[in-house]
C-alpha cells in the first residue's frame, strides 16, 4: 500500500497557523455532552490541536484562568446536526442538540480561524439542508478506481483492505465539510468486493465503520444483487424467489452481527449488463423492497440507483431514447417502495454530461424517497486534467423548479425532504479522490471535493462563496490573486463547455475513456451516432413529435422544452434537431456558433493558464508546477476538440466559417 506523505488539504493547521501564536492559554469545557463520547472526543481533539498552535499558554482545565475558553453546550432547540456559535474576546460557545452538530460547529470555528477570522468575530447559526450527505467511491478491491483520475484506492490493494493514518485523515476531511455517509466500493461490484459481506472482511469493515463513527459518518457498501448466486450457490437471484429471500435474511443477520454500525447498501441493478429484477421479469420495486425488508430489523437503508437502461437498444430507431429510461422504469412505481428505500437519481437523465436538463424523476416522483446523485470525479468534464469547477452546475440543478408543487418545488426542496416530508433523502457525489499525495490529482480539483460537501450541508451557499472559502483555506494569496482564482473557477465550466459540446448536445467523446473528442464516438455508436447530425442540422428531437422525452416533465417545463423558441438555448440541441442556418438569439447561425464557441473556448483555456502563471510567486512551487502541467494538457485537449468538432461539422454542413479561419 502506498505509504508516501499526503496533503492535509484544507485542514493543514501547521501551514496556516505557524506564525500566529498569542500568549493566551485555552480551555475546552462541556455542558450536557459526555467528554467520553467518540464524536465529542474527535471535536475536542481538533479544537485542541488548533488552539495549541494559536495559544502559547497551552491547554488548562482551570476555565476561569484561561485566556480563551470554548464551551460546548447541549441545546435541544437546535435541529439535528445543526449548531449555533457565539463569541466575545475571551469565550466562544458552540451549541448543538447532538454530537454531529458539535463536530460540525468545531470545524466551523477551526475553518474560520484558518481563514483569518478573529476569535470574537466567529458567529454562526447553521442547520443542514439535507439529512444524508454522501460520498460514493468507485474503488475496486484490486486497488484500481473506475473513472479514477487521482491514483489508486487508499482503501484497497490486491484484494486487501487497509486502514491507516491516511484513512483517519480522510474521515476528518469529510466530517469537516459535513459528510455523514460514505460508500467505499464500486457500484459495479465484482470479484473480491462481493466478499465484503462475508467473514473474510468483516473485521476490517467493522474497524472502518468504527473509525468513521468517530467522525459522525455512517459506512455503506455497494452490494452485488447477484450475491445469492455468486456467494450462496443458488441458481437465481430472483427477488420473489423464497430461497433468495431467505438467503438475504440470513446474510443481513450475519452482516449486522459482525458490523452493527453499518448504514446500509448502495445497489446498481439492470444497467450496463448488471443483473437485476428485470432478469426475472420483475420490476425495480420488487428488487429494492426485497432487500429493504431483510435489512429493516437493523435500521438499514437500501439506496437504489435509478441508472437503469437497456444498452442493447437499436439507436438507429429515432424513437429510441436512453434519456427516457429512468422515468419510464420508475414513475409507474411511485409509492410502491418501502420507507427504508431511497432512489438515487442522477442530476440529468443521461450520464454526467457537461450540460443536461434536470432529470424529470426529481419531483416527478411524489410518494418515494429520493436523493440527488452528482459526480465530482470528472468523467465527462475533463478527468481532473481540465479545470472544471462544478458547483455552478450543481446550483443550477438544485435551484431548478420541478413544478411538483405550487411552491417549495425546487430540486433542493425535493431532495432535502422538505417537499415530500420525508427524512430519507439527501445528496450523493461520485468522489474524485485517490492515493495521489494531493488526493485529487489536479490540486485545483479539490475545490469540487470541498465544494460538494459544503453545498450538500447548505444548499443556499453560492458557488462563489464556496470557491472563496476553499481558496482561503488552501492558499495564502493577495486579494488580487484570490479574486483572480475565484474568477478562474467560476468561469471554468462555461469554458470547458464551449470547446467540447455546447448547447446541450453532450457526448462526442472517446468511448470508454471519456476524455478527448470523438464526434461519432458515443458508447453504442454501432447503433448510430448519438447527436444525430446530418447534412442539414443536428440535435435530438425529444419533443412530442420526436422521442417524447420532453413530455415527462410537468406541463410548465414540458411546454417550455417542447418549443424550440422557448427552450433554453443552452439545452437547444438536447431537445431539438436544429438546422445549421437557423439563427440563434445573438444573431449567429447554429453552425457559426459551433465554430465560434470552440475557438473561444480554446482561447479562454489559454487565458486560464496565463492567469495561473501570473500567480507563481504566491503558490507553493510543487503545486504550481503540477497545475501548470495540467493546464498544458488542457490546452492540448481544447485544441483537439476545437479542430475535430469544427472540421466534422464543416464537412457535414458544407458551410464555411464566416470569419475565414482554418477549420479543416
Describe the structure.
The chain has 664 residues and is α/β, with parallel strands linked by helices. The protein has 3 domains: 114 residues, 2-Layer Sandwich (Chitobiase, domain 2); 343 residues, TIM Barrel (Alpha-Beta Barrel); 120 residues, Alpha-d-glucuronidase, C-terminal Domain (Alpha-Beta Complex), CATH 3.90.1330.10. An 8-stranded parallel β-barrel has the order 7-10-11-12-13-14-15-16. It has a 6-stranded mixed β-sheet with strand order 2-1-3-5-4-6, with helices on one face. A hairpin with a 3-residue loop joins strand 4 and strand 5. It is globular and about 80 Å long. 52% of the residues are buried.
Topology:
Layout: H1 13-17, E1 25-31, H2 38-54, E2 58-59, E3 68-74, E4 83-87, E5 91-96, H3 99-114, E6 124-126, E7 132-136, E8 156-157, E9 160-161, H4 165-176, E10 181-183, H5 199-213, E11 218-223, H6 227-230, H7 242-258, E12 264-267, H8 284-295, E13 301-305, H9 325-330, E14 341-346, E15 370-375, H10 391-399, H11 411-416, E16 426-430, H12 446-457, H13 463-474, H14 479-499, E17 537-538, H15 555-562, H16 572-575, E18 578-579, H17 590-613, H18 621-653
Parallel strand pairs: 1-2, 1-3, 3-5, 7-10, 7-16, 10-11, 11-12, 12-13, 13-14, 14-15, 15-16
Antiparallel strand pairs: 4-5, 4-6, 8-9, 17-18
Helix pairs in contact: 2-3, 7-8, 12-13, 13-14, 14-17, 17-18
